[in-house]
Write a structure and sequence with these properties.
Layout lengths: L10 E4 L7 H11 L3 E6 L3 H11 E6 L5 H15 L4 E4 L14 H25 L4 E6 L12 H21 L4 E8 L8 H4 L2 H10 L8 H12 L10 E4 L11
Parallel strand pairs: 1-2, 1-4, 2-3, 4-5, 5-6, 6-7
Length: 252
């Protein structure tokens, strides 16, 4: 018997959907399942507006280096759509720099955007969800797999994994599930610079059992599942979407 995922009547906010990547793919997939989706972006107004024309929701701009602005975003989405049922906290920042060269300010900025803003978003979104809801964070396999040059990024994503578990415990009685997806090597704007290095690409492909890098749609499918009624009994977990990369040892 065929199973169809329906999000009809649900109102969702997807952050970090202005660039080519997981946020944009997730927003489209949720909309195709019937949700009305608010599109957040940092500095891509035209791309976000084009996406919102597909998803039926408002376009919302915010810089997550400003934690207060991140906390206001769910309220802005709920006001525009008459409520909020789903949050996909996907926006993030990446820094590739050796430990000894990473400054306090750089470390703080990555944690502000990736972890503190995610906390503020989810806390405020949970307060708006009536009769249950779904919160999904985008983490990374780097939450488990340390990699040289990613001390700020990897530690912030490890924090996301812990945050999802803590929030899941407190929000379960309200019918709100909290989970995360941990992408491996995905073809996005965030890692475009690294992917243009043939040596980096060859090394990565050699580590992935599936023999290919992932697409944003690969991750969006897991997000759709976690946002749907199929995952009503799934909370406090992180799903790796990595083609088996995290099976291959400690370095991603």
């Amino acid at each position: 018997m065929a199973v169809q995922v329906s999000l009809e009547g649900r109102r969702a906010l997807v952050t970090g959907a202005g660039t080519e990547g997981i946020g944009r793919a997730a927003a489209r997939m949720l909309a195709r399942a019937g949700a009305r989706v608010a599109v957040h972006h940092l500095a891509e107004p035209e791309a976000a507006a084009a996406l919102a024309a597909e998803t039926g929701g408002p376009v919302l701009q915010a810089d997550f280096a400003d934690i207060a602005a991140a906390g206001r975003l769910p309220h802005r989405a709920a006001e525009a759509m008459g409520g909020l049922d789903i949050l996909v906290a996907n926006a993030g920042a990446l820094l590739r720099k050796p430990l000894a060269e990473t400054t306090d300010a750089e470390f703080a900025r990555i944690h502000a955007v990736n972890l503190q803003a995610g906390f503020a978003l989810a806390r405020e979104a949970a307060g708006l969800m009536r009769g249950g809801g779904r919160i999904v964070f985008t983490s990374s396999v780097n939450q488990w797999m340390p990699n040289p040059g990613l001390v700020a990024y990897g530690s912030s994503k490890a924090g996301i994994g812990g945050l999802a578990r803590q929030m899941a415990l407190e929000l379960a009685p309200a019918g709100i599930t909290v989970n995360a997806v941990a992408p491996g090597t995905i073809e996005t704007d965030l890692n475009r610079g690294a992917r243009e290095d043939p040596a980096w690409r060859e090394r990565k492909l050699g580590l992935i059992p599936a023999g290919r890098t992932g697409t944003p749609e690969d991750v969006a499918g897991a997000i759709l599942f976690l946002c749907s009624d199929l995952a009503a009994y799934v909370t406090g977990t992180t799903i790796a979407v990595d083609g088996g990369l995290s099976l291959m040892g400690l370095r991603a």
